[in-house]
Amino acid sequence: MEETQVWSLFAMQNVGISIYFVGMMFLVWVAFRVSKNISESDGNILTKIVGSVFGLGVVFFGLGTNAIGDYVSGASAYSLSQLKASGVEISPMAETFIAMNGAGSVPEYSIYPGVIGAIWWLSVLIIILMPIWGPKSSS
User: Fold this and answer.
1) Whole-prediction pTM
2) Model confidence pLDDT, tens digit, residues 117-134
3) Which of 8, 4, 10 lies closest to 107 in space, CA to CA?
4) Which tens digits make up the pLDDT trace of 65-123?
5) Where in the chain are the domains?
6) I want to staple 77 with a disulfide (CB 3.0 to 4.6 A). Which of 16, 63, 101, 119 is the partner?
7) Do residues 76 and 104 lie in contact, with contact meaning Cβ atoms separated by under 8 Å?
8) CB 17 within 8 A of CB 65
């Protein structure tokens, strides 16, 4: 395998991940709308539970999409590091990519997105659940 093949595979995999990401952002928007509608209609307990389960599912699958993206990046970095270890000369860009994505170790699948990602997904979850279960504003 050559460096260009690794980059090519990485690019193709990112196309699929990008499509999933766009779908996830659409579902986040839908979850926000569901949450708002439940809050405004003062939904019953069943509606609140179903809306909450939907919101939790959106966040869970969003974390999974993020994890797949991280795994693909780590796998590509690992492939590039294996090329280098076998004596193939790799570009400075590949060296930087290896350093940024796991230093060439075998990637591990993890649903934990890091501190910033965790804060972001937690805020999405709060935005979904607060209107459903939180206090109603008096207007």
Assistant:
1) 0.86
2) 999 999 999 999 999 998
3) 10
4) 999 999 999 999 999 999 999 999 999 999 999 999 877 679 999 999 999 999 999 99
5) 3-133
6) 101
7) no
8) yes
Residues 58, 24: contact at Cβ < 8 Å? yes
Q: Is 37 helix (H, G, I), strand (E, B) or coil?
A: helix
Question: Is residue 139 pLDDT above 70, yes or no?
Answer: no
Q: How far apart are CA 73 and CA 138, in angstroms?
A: 48
Measuring CA to CA, how many Å separate 105 from each of 6, 23, 35, 46, 76? 16, 30, 42, 47, 10
CA distance 131 to 20: 26
Tokens, residue 27: 């579902």
Q: d(Cα 91, Cα 101) in Å, to the nearest integer?
A: 15
C-alpha distances (whole Å) from 119 to each of 30, 34, 43, 46, 50 are 20, 22, 28, 28, 24
Q: What angle do CA 77, 80, 89 make, to 5 degrees?
A: 145
Q: Does residue 83 contact residue 39 with C-beta atoms inside 8 Å?
A: no
Judge contact between 24 and 62, C-beta under 8 A.
yes
